[in-house]
Amino acid sequence: FSRPGRPEVFPDLNNFDLGEASSGQVTGMYATTNALVITKNRGIYLIKGDAASGFYSQTLSRTEGSVSANGIIQIPGIGLGMMSAEGEILLLRGALENVGSATQIVRLSTPIPDEVEKLNRSALQRVVAVLNRRDKEVWWCVPTLGSDRNNRILCYHYEVDAWTTKSDLPVAAAVSTADHREYLIWGSWDDVNAPGVHALGHGFGAKKL
After folding, report:
1. C-alpha dihedral over 1, 39, 77, 101, to 10 degrees?
2. How far apart are CA 146 and CA 22, in angstroms?
3. What is the pLDDT at residue 95?
4. I need a labelling partner for 148 at 20 to 30 A (CA). Which of 5, 112, 128, 191 fits?
5. CA 82, CA 90: separation in Å to the nearest integer?
6. Strand, coil or helix: what is 80?
7. 3 state DSSP class of 117
8. pLDDT tens-place string over residues 74-101
């Protein structure tokens, strides 16, 4: 990390050694509350502190982690969700000590074991997570057995703690807008049946852009 006030200067000692080589590569970094969450295939670490008092690392797990950089997402009022190498959707709660709950990892996908079993684990690096603000839900766009592309959506309704699924949406990438329109925009990998960029919004449902 850089020297305070000098963002292009990186002293030799300003670095962290996170986990062993067996834990895999770094798969994502996400800033949440007052911590930077760093994930590996099998490892979750928190970087805390500030420039005045110094930064430090905290190992949260050496067995759980995130397999997809695009599968990490902040769920409003709940925590940080991510896809593990085993196809489980994990939830990181309490990255900050004073948020009212201890820092912990819980399995958010426990209620849907049949859906987890259907996932193509060798293609989970393609998983995409996106927030559908309009309907108060989070989409995890996932590949199922027999497909190396995302062809199913695991939909978590975070206000009621419930799951549903959607099929036949070939999502390669997705983003949600934070303005009053609350569009969910996604790009397709299927150039034949659903080519191009699509939007989900109020009034019109879904349409191609």
Report:
1. -90
2. 28
3. 57
4. 112
5. 5
6. strand
7. helix
8. 999 899 999 999 999 999 987 555 555 5
Spatial separation of the C-alpha atoms in residues 192 and 206, rounded to whole Å: 18
Take residue 108 and report the two structure tokens written for it: 């958010």
Q: Under a CB-based contact definition with an 8 Å cutoff, are residues 119 and 87 in contact?
A: yes
Helix (H/G/I), strand (E/B), else coil: 197 = strand
Quick check: 142 and 156 in contact, CB under 8 A?
Answer: no
Confidence class for position 40, pLDDT limits 50, 70, 90: very high
Single-letter code of the amino acid located at 41: N
Number of H helices, E strands in the chain: 1, 16
How many other C-beta atoms are found inside a 10 Å radius of the C-beta of residue 16? 12
CA distance 151 to 154: 10
Under DSSP, the state recorded for 88 is P
Q: Which two tokens stand for residue 22?
A: 């067996």
Look up the pTM and report it. Answer: 0.85
Token pair in block for residue 2: 């850089």
